[in-house]
Amino acid sequence: MRVVSGMQPSGRLHLGNDLGALANWKTLQEEHDCFFFVADWHALSANYEDTGRLRDHVRDLLLDWLASGINPDRATIFIQSQVPAHAVLFVLLSMITPIPWLERNPTYKEKQEQLEGRDLSTHGFLGYPVLQAADILLYKAEAVPVGRDQLPHLELTREIARRFNSLYRTGVLTEPDALLTQFPKVAGTDGRKMSKSYGNTIHLSDTEAEVRQKLKTMVTDPARVKRHDPGTPDVCPVFDFHKIYSDAAVTEQVNRDCRTAAIGCIDCKTLVADRVVARLSPVWDARAEIETDPRRLEDVTQAGRARAADVAARTLEEIRDAMKI
């Protein structure tokens, strides 16, 4: 099965990205024909005014992918802007996509409200779902890993594919199915969802000292003020980390001891920090090894670009034939 997924380069990845996307990608690459791309053109849709660190972000993203186990021998890894066919198909699909379809996009107005102070009244921002559709349809993806909140975006891709096939009486474009991903919500150090915009992240590339320090300052049960106060693990973000990273025996012990004040928050955080460090240690080692080879990232992305471009060119040829251009 052909699977396509991408990620915008907006900074170093964190534990939420690892659990929400990369862990799933690692499973998919062992079972399917996967295309994973750095969506640098998508990054311009809302950040076109500030591109000073874009190349650094692309590099950091690729390093995090490879260090986390995304394998170029198992998946096609490439940078979106290095395959111009994405832009060509974006233009062609833009010709047939009704504007009301884009205006009803549930995140269109939400993002405009959330990103106050930025001028998002641009063609690129309104039309980014068409570029997203091009990214997927170009490779005839049969499935796209998404969360439930992203289903409307994928349905728009399916609608564009149906409209194209109907207009030109062809079956060239494949309507992709959703691969629903289920993952636990990962809390940030302030208890809110882990997000770069909140500044509450634990990065995959943080040092051990940084990870331990961040977890040491993580919020806990607000009702547990003193050491002898019993706690309620169900409302504690640190306990959520235990449920993700600690084994069943440790998690159950922490659950029990917190409720009786047999364990304090500092000791509880130390236990979970040990498990997070154990999870990240192989990533740190892999990243350090990759960085010793200055050509590694270029070699990976050039090999990925070559394969992606070949598949994309064949699809574009079929599309041009269908459109008689």
Report on this structure.
The structure is a single chain. The protein is mostly helical. It has two domains: 2-186 and 294-323, HUPs (Rossmann fold, 3-Layer(aba) Sandwich); 206-287, Tyrosyl-Transfer RNA Synthetase. It is built from 13 helices and five strands. The protein has helices at residues 15-31, 40-47, 54-68, 85-94, 99-103, 106-114, 123-137, 151-167, 208-216, 237-245, 248-259, 265-291, 296-323, and strands at 2-7, 33-38, 75-79, 143-146, 177-180. The chain has a three-stranded parallel β-sheet with strand order 1-2-3. A two-stranded parallel ribbon has the order 4-5. Strand 4 (143-146), helix 8 and strand 5 (177-180) form a beta-alpha-beta unit. The longest helix has 28 residues, at 296-323.
Secondary structure: elements and pairs:
Elements: E1 2-7, H1 15-31, E2 33-38, H2 40-47, H3 54-68, E3 75-79, H4 85-94, H5 99-103, H6 106-114, H7 123-137, E4 143-146, H8 151-167, E5 177-180, H9 208-216, H10 237-245, H11 248-259, H12 265-291, H13 296-323
Parallel strand pairs: 1-2, 2-3, 4-5
Helix pairs in contact: 2-7, 3-12, 4-7, 4-13, 7-8, 9-12, 10-12
- In helices, the fraction of residues equals 55-70%
The biggest beta sheet is recorded as: 3 strands, parallel
Structural class: mainly alpha
Count of all domains: 2
CATH topology description of the largest domain: Rossmann fold
State the separation between the terminal residues, measured CA to CA.
Answer: 30 Å
Task: Give, in order, the helices and strands.
Answer: EHEHHEHHHHEHEHHHHH
Strand order in the largest sheet? 1-2-3
As a whole number of angstroms, the C-alpha radius of gyration is: 22 Å
What is the number of E strands? 5
> Helix count?
13
Beta-strand level of the residues, as a percent range?
5-15%
Look at the structure and give the CATH class of the largest domain: Alpha Beta
Task: Say which CATH homologous superfamily of the largest domain is assigned.
Answer: HUPs
Write the CATH architecture name of the largest domain. 3-Layer(aba) Sandwich
Low-confidence spans: none
Would you tell me the overall average pLDDT?
A: 95
Silhouette: elongated
